[in-house]
Amino acid sequence: MSSHRQRLGALRTELARENLNGFFVPLTDEHMSEYIGAYACRLEWLTGFGGSAGSAVVLEGQAAIFVDGRYTIQVTEQVDPELWSYKSLPADDPVAWAIAHLKAGDRIGYDPWLASLGWEKQARRRLDAQKIELVALPTNPIDAIWSDRPLPSQAPAFIQPENLAGKTSEQKRHEVAEWLNAKQADTLVLTALDSIAWLFNMRGSDVSCTPVALAFALTHKDGSADLFIDPAKTDDALKEAMGNAVHFHDQADFPDALKALSGKSVIVDPERTVAAITALLQDGGARLSYDRDPVVLMKAIKNRAEIEGHRQAQLWDAVALAKFFYWLSQTAPKRQLTELSAAEKLLSFRQESGHLVDLSFETISAAAAHSAIPHYRVTEASNLPLKKDEIYLVDSGGQYPNGTTDVTRTVIIGTPTEEMKQRFTLVLKGHIALATAVFPAGTSGGQLDSFARQYLWRAGVDYAHGTGHGVGAFLSVHEGPQRISPSGGAFSGGNEVLRAGMILSNEPGYYKSGAFGIRIENLLLVKPVEVAEAEKPCLAFETLNFTPIDRNLINSSLLSESEISWLNQYHQEVCQKLLPFLSMQEAEWLKAATAPLRG
Question: What region holds the Creatinase N-terminal domain (predicted)?
Fold first, then answer.
């Protein structure tokens, strides 16, 4: 089945065989992951859509794909409009769309290993009200027709050394045990791959760009744990490093282990646990309660070793970026580069450090109008040249053994227009406002989000994404629970209180559809700060990235003296940190790129 038309037709045949009138197709895996292994890329296989967020509904005579504002252009480039209707989240809702196109007595299926408990309960309630049956399927019908579906990765798992992790797995598991005892519970079900990786000081390469190993875990109130993982991924060294209190099981044994928790008080995270797991626990007679996975907050607050590891990783990354932007400045005006060739060259500079394990996400290498697509992904079909007097935006990051990086820079190839400079400078002002924020303990990311938007708002413009996301320690580049984003609306999630040790991105932007886009992103560390006469403890940010900000795109007349001072000081630090690692030619370029800006 080479065509998406054939695949959609085959799925409808399979649904008819199961006496179903429709099927929900989410973009996730059995761990509710954002980034998933090739074996779980069912939505992409079925539709051609390669974004990192979305879902679809397939009915007998029609089908729809649902994406948010980050992917409205990408979905039209990748998904056939003759087969699929394009729907925009959150305005369009997959369940509501299904209800509008089904009738009483119809049956629509879902995979309970790919649906959160919250989604399943809400969808069932709404469908029941219309006398439409929601059917939990024992196997995914897409798997039945995907004949060359990749197998889950069998890459070996490995230990994250204690000098980089900062704590032993035993120490971490005892913290979870204390939490369980405080909750008067026996067992915590862990499904999130980055939580499992952090808790057991274990990493892997089962998911592109995220160093995790496919596994489930049960942790208990005595500090012991059961780890469910493919035996092919483990060895004696891994087991010895875990210690005797961690018991290894085949991942295939996980469902039976859940059913065996009869009479136990078991906590599951409703946001991170699929409906199939809670059903197995209920069928087995466990006493269920719901709470957020405690590891989510534990790993978000970085310890000293993780913070120092981040700083080293950011330095390696910054050297690679400086070499790349020097190369770009010399090469782009002379010969035709493309989005793909630029991304490949940036990867080669990161690899030169000898420390790069993987990218932290697929590089967003975006020229001209593509830079106006916040989550653009370049392909052979979409590959644009980098042309004179056009903007080039590159959002990229690396996975290093001691830290995860994420940085965006926007540069001009040639001469910018006044509009480009004005918009770039407004984005820069917002970036500086957030980077220099001082705030009392107890402040949430949502309360700080407008710091970065205020200057764009005054000009009557905005950007349709959050301002900042959490970042892991050699883990997920998008880490919760911390966010800097509006507390309501399409990109909500900013209600989490910021705490010292958290790392977040600072990435305001501006996007003019069909013309150009701008984003300036650094990573920020939340740290305590002394404030004279403060009535409560205060926090501030330390910038972790050190990559030049393109002076050619700045209208300095729009900057205040304090903003110019911040930029000059930042560029001075960039020079001090990077010059020892650059060639003579690269160093001369860097000195010019970071020369003091005058008002």
Answer: 7-130
